[in-house]
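Q: Structure for this?
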Amino acid sequence: MWVILTMASAVHWFRKGLRLHDNPALLDAVQNPTTTYVLPVFCLDPIFLRPETVGVNRMNFLLECLQDLDQQLRKLHSRLFVLRGNPLEQLPVFFRKYHTRLLTFEFDTEPYAKQRDTQVRRLCAELGIEVRTRATHTLYDPEDIRRELGDRPTPLTYKSFYAFVTERLGQPMSALDAPAPASGFQTPDVDLDTYTVPSLSELEAYQGLEVETPFRGGETEALRRMENFLRERADEVRSFAKPATSPTAWPVASTTQLSPYFKFGCLSPRLFVERVRSLRPLQQPPVSLIGQIWWREFFTYVAYVTPHFHQMQGNPICRQIPWREAADDARYRAWEEARTGYPWIDACMVQLRQEGWLHHLARHAVACFLTRGDLWVSWERGRETFDRLLVDADYSLNNANWLWLSSSAFFHQYYRVYSPISFPQKYDPNGEYVRHFLPVLKEMPSKYIYTPWLAPVVVQKKAKCIIGEDYPHPIVDHAVVMRENMRRMREALDAGAPQRVPKRPRRDANEASSSSSSS
DNA sequence: TGTCGGGTTGTTCCA
DNA sequence: ATGGAACAACCCGAC
């Protein structure tokens, strides 16, 4: 113990980036010449230890990531130190105990992380600890993009973002290897029985909650899944076109399902891009597999530089739309609890709750239904549900996609509405997906699987599913509310966009100029 | 403060 | 059966 107390240490703080490969901040700690020991740390922040915020499926996934990380580190004769509590309180105690001189971590763009990390930096300055960070959650450092953009406005379309970044920044950095066993990775052999990775049952708030997700956390699993997909489904990788994949494929999904691993950084996007590029010829962005990583890049960047990105109020790129009052939440609850009476929507919501994952187009369908399509409930509420239930819930991507689907930002063709009936019909005419996730409809004839309320009573009886008793009546009439909502959207745009020039009137130039000469 | 082409992933109807 | 137009008409970015 005396020895340890006199030797300086470097701490690598894992938050996301839960991997050993392509982790330059970890390598900075390992290779730092003025410190003897490396202490890999994760801090279980109580702000995330609540099932109302982080659902049981994602919490379990996180703990599995930490277990895997610990095991991988032990192969390097190191280990993971798991601190419990607010990092601003726990880290300094740890720093003093182990004479920390250097702190490294992966740069994080999220608002909570930004303010937390600012405080940690301040604290380190007081303690005389050097801080080094690396931006490795995305292909590029968002600060590099911001610097290149200079005074230009933030690109709000995929194409303009992609064109600008590829032209100005060229290829992303290549992925780095994990630290080798002989890399000088030294971790003191102390506190063996403390700072261990907890099991789910040790987290009080999660006791008694059942884990249903099929996703197993960790870098090892991420790499295995990626290599497996590249090997077994190479043709699909080459021809991959996201809009052409099926949202009803189950149990073998039509996509890679790597999103939970990207969310926690179990898998480096740079490594993924390099590995996919080894297969040729490839489909091109935006629909290609690499194109998907660019969507992540685009949304992460815009979320980073946009104030109040997670809400309508004060968000400069968000349409101001008078969504239904928050107090009137019967519709929201029906949606979240899979009781809308539209089998396609409800089946999706059951899969979301059980597995913590939905195909991208299924997310589109339920998001459109909750907001501009049918229920006219604020996208912020749907965002909260996704944030709690998705194993892959990511601040930037989740908010961006809700902005998109509610046609609040990025996407503006609000008259394109997903039908909860004909949309799933083209992928799954027999409704196998619905029958699996809503067993109450298992016996319903295919003709009525998406519209069971239209089935004659004898058919309902024969299927052992009486609408109104065993399965609810539709909460709204899609054909009717869709029209109403389009009109509402039109009104909201007229009211909220004074700079907008109405197309219809356009009488003459004089009138237009006199009405707009306000300053 | 114009114009126009295009926007990862709509639906319905008709030929 | 598949492909194209009507539906109603948005905003962004490039010129």
